[in-house]
């Protein structure tokens, strides 16, 4: 009679065989990263990287939101950013650059948990970082999670095994991103100690991508130029790598701010483009624009007044809003859509300023503020409810409440509006 160990070994072998068949032979797509995602928006929790006021209007056109960054990212600001963007209106991926950015709360907030692996960095970038992450899961996050969830202690031995299962399951459920970093002048390159000698030719990149798919079982191979467009060099790498991959998704990120650049890398073989910097630039742009609008327009300005003012205040075709929207392959006429969103943002800002002025000195507590907002149509509510689920506790109501709490200096729990550009 076979032993328990024999049965377990046979079962594990069969499972691996089925998994391998699903990736190579069977006519099914077993990669958990949706093939439909051809555009991903990278959102950085860093304090200086703000979100546009009506950010769900822009994000309705992307496939997914990837939350993470290489500098000044913490567990707290990651939680805050996820609280704002997760599911509004697209699924959120947490991509930590450090183990302590992963918390019990971020694991609950994010739909996907992505573990970065750098294929052309130093050993620390792939082995050391992953090792410290597993140690953190086993020795800190896992025990803390177990202590919070268990009604009674189970004993050291059983609890250790459960924590080990928790750690293994967390990594099993994770999506692994195998990075090829090609911009030396980037935070990502510095973090992974990528030097001139580590830059890869198309053939070398292809070989490492094959290792990522076959041995590391990375769901994503990510060609990263981080803030600069890779041009013909990136296209050559994408062409070679895409021919070698059959299961892993191939993503490209870096310097994308036009329809032409996006089309070039998609035609070269990328499955998806990742756009980050220009999205945060919308927030910087609109903060200045809204400040000028408040100075120059009356609170009761009509839609026509705002549209005329926008036409003279900014070249919409050259705006960050239009640049970001132009990177979305499925979106036609990004300039017209950018104008629509900028006008809606200014209208919401003017209405908010009028509302804040009317309530200043009239409400002093959270309950009074909530009562004052009941049965009102709030700034931005119509536009955001067209993208998100409405209702008495809808996101635009949470957002306006949070902005007013901040403005009127009321003591209350609120959304982390400090991440919003016009807060």
TrEMBL record:
Parts of the chain that traverse the membrane: none
Keywords associated with the record: Lipid biosynthesis, Lipid metabolism, Magnesium, Metal-binding, Phospholipid biosynthesis, Phospholipid metabolism, Transferase
Gene3D superfamilies to which the protein is assigned, alphabetical: FMN-linked oxidoreductases
InterPro entries assigned to the protein according to its UniProt record, in alphabetical order: GGGP/HepGP_synthase_I, GGGP/HepGP_synthase_sf, GGGP_HepGP_synthase
Enzyme class of the recorded protein, top EC level: transferase
Matches recorded under Pfam families: PcrB (PF01884)
GO biological process: glycerophospholipid biosynthetic process
Enzyme Commission numbers on file: 2.5.1.41
This protein's record includes keyword Lyase: no
Catalysed reaction, written as an equation: sn-glycerol 1-phosphate + (2E,6E,10E)-geranylgeranyl diphosphate = sn-3-O-(geranylgeranyl)glycerol 1-phosphate + diphosphate
SUPFAM superfamilies, alphabetized: FMN-linked oxidoreductases (SSF51395)
GO molecular function, one term: heptaprenylglyceryl phosphate synthase activity
Protein name per its UniProtKB record: phosphoglycerol geranylgeranyltransferase
Organism of provenance: Halorhabdus tiamatea SARL4B
């Amino acid at each position: 009679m076979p032993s328990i160990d024999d049965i377990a070994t046979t079962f594990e072998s069969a499972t691996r065989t089925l998994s391998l068949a699903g990736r190579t032979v069977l006519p099914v797509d077993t990669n958990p990263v949706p093939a439909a995602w051809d555009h991903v928006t990278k959102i950085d929790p860093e304090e200086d990287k703000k979100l546009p006021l009506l950010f769900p209007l822009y994000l309705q056109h992307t496939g997914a939101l990837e939350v993470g960054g290489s500098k000044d990212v913490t567990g707290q600001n990651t939680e805050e950013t996820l609280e704002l963007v997760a599911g509004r209106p697209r699924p959120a991926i947490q991509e930590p650059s450090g183990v302590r950015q992963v918390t019990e709360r971020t694991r609950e907030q994010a739909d996907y948990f992505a573990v970065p692996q750098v294929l052309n960095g130093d050993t620390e970038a792939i082995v050391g970082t992953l090792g410290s992450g597993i140690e953190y899961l086993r020795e800190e996050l896992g025990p803390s999670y177990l202590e919070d969830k268990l009604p009674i202690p189970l004993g050291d031995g059983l609890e250790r095994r459960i924590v080990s299962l928790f750690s293994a399951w967390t990594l099993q459920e994770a999506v692994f991103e195998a990075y090829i970093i090609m911009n030396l002048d980037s935070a990502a390159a510095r973090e992974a100690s990528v030097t001139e000698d580590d830059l890869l030719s198309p053939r070398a990149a292809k070989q490492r991508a094959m290792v990522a798919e076959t041995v590391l079982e990375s769901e994503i191979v990510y060609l990263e130029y981080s803030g600069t467009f890779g041009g013909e060099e990136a296209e050559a790498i994408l062409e070679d790598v895409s021919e070698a991959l059959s299961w892993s998704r191939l993503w490209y990120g870096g310097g994308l701010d036009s329809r032409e650049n996006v089309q070039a890398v998609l035609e070269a073989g990328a499955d998806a483009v990742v756009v980050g910097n220009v999205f945060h630039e919308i927030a910087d742009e609109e903060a200045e624009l809204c400040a000028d609008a408040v100075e120059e327009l009356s609170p009761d300005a009509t839609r026509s007044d705002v549209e005329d003012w926008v036409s003279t205040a900014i070249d919409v075709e050259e705006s960050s809003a239009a640049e970001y929207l132009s990177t979305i392959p499925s979106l036609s006429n990004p300039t017209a859509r950018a104008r629509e969103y900028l006008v809606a943002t200014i209208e919401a800002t003017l209405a908010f300023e009028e509302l804040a002025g009317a309530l200043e000195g009239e409400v002093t507590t959270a309950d009074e503020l909530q009562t004052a907002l009941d049965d009102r149509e709030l700034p931005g509510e119509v536009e955001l409810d067209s993208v998100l689920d409405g209702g008495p506790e809808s996101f635009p109501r949470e957002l306006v409440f949070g902005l007013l709490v901040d403005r009127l200096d009321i003591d209350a729990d609120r959304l982390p509006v400090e991440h919003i550009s016009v807060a």
